Amino acid sequence: MPWIYLLLAGIFEIGFAIGMKYSDGFSKPLPTVATVVAALISLFLMSQAMKTIPVGTAYAIWTGIGALGVAVLGIFLFNDSASPARLGCVALIVAGVIGLKLVSTP
Question: Which parts pass through the membrane (predicted)?
């Protein structure tokens, strides 16, 4: 169950980061509220996951999921660059997240 919490925390981390873009510096009420709610849910789920997953592993995977999701959504939603170098760096993040999962015990 802690890995499911961590995955969900990462997904809400993506929502939090994308929400910040849509909130326009927290000047738009609805996106701002959604962003804050996503952040709170993400942090709560992360805290549950860290009851059994080592803090360094949990944090690295949480931020990796967030970075991957935001990078991909940035390409589709905001026309961020999809250059081979950028995609290669995203692939390294994915490799790191998978590696951490494989070497973690809980």
Answer: 29-46, 58-78, 84-103
